[in-house]
Design goal:
Distance between the termini: 24 Å
Number of domains: 1
Strand order of the largest sheet: 1-2-3-4-5-6-7-8-9-10-11-12-13-14
Strand content: over 45%
CATH architecture: Beta Barrel
Shape: globular
Largest sheet: 14 strands, antiparallel
Number of strands: 14
Length: about 300
Amino acid sequence: MGGGLKAVFQVESGFSVTNGTLSQSGRMFGRQAWFGLSSRSVGTLTLGRQYDDLVDFVQPLTGATVSGLAHPFDNDNLVDVIRINNSIKYTSADYHGLKFGGLYGFSNSPGAGFASNRAWSLGAGYVGGALTLGAGYLHLNFPNSDATGAVTGEYPSVVLAGFTGAVTREVVWGGGATYVLGPTKVGLVYSHSEFDSTAASLKFDNFEIHADYQVTPALLLGARYTFTSGVVDPAGTKPKYHQFELTADYALSKRTDVYLIGAYQKATGDATRAVLAPDTFGAGGSFAPDASSNKSQGLARVGMRLRW
């Protein structure tokens, strides 16, 4: 468009590789659907269905970039189960390694409903040599309370011992860092999430450490450990989870790679079962069907990715 200004857009569909059905509650463009303007000197402003700033600035610092495995229940949304509808988002230009941004998702309801099912987030990141830092914040008000607001359809029902009622508020914040030393990259991530209903509250703290080793230009090996501690009030239950992952990723070309993942989770404390496989909280009054029936669960996955 001239003067360093350009139009940008992105539309993505998600579908099941098992049967080809659309994911994200059957949406045609359920992953992302946005457009906007981008300036080299000012930044980017976009409108539509988008990821929040916690996903933009913290998720790349986790060890989930190959495995795609969530912290238990994806309680911190770092594998982006939740997308924000009706949103306006600003991401700054790169100022000597520093970038920042903000997002607001409208409730799409007038009057008293203006505050229901709205969302907002903030984030910032810094890249300086071998060090990368990131932090983010996400706030949801009465998510999934109507069909036209910021979060609809795919918001999970929270089903955990002692937690009752629909979520009236969700808050997530966290930060992380990675450091590259030769062929090795190590990372630390911390996140905190809170869920409130009219009768109870649920909090999670996630502590993650991971490392990647570039054996050859084509072969990457990785290891990841996450400890998650939860508290449900007023019941006083305290579920805890230990999650271990090993990954191997081999690049067949610049755009195509194959990977192997092995993972194990041990539930302790007041947790009744391991939930390694489910990406979200259970719906309809129970855990997702691929949760374990006891306190241990293992997972193995082989896959291929094609990027373009």
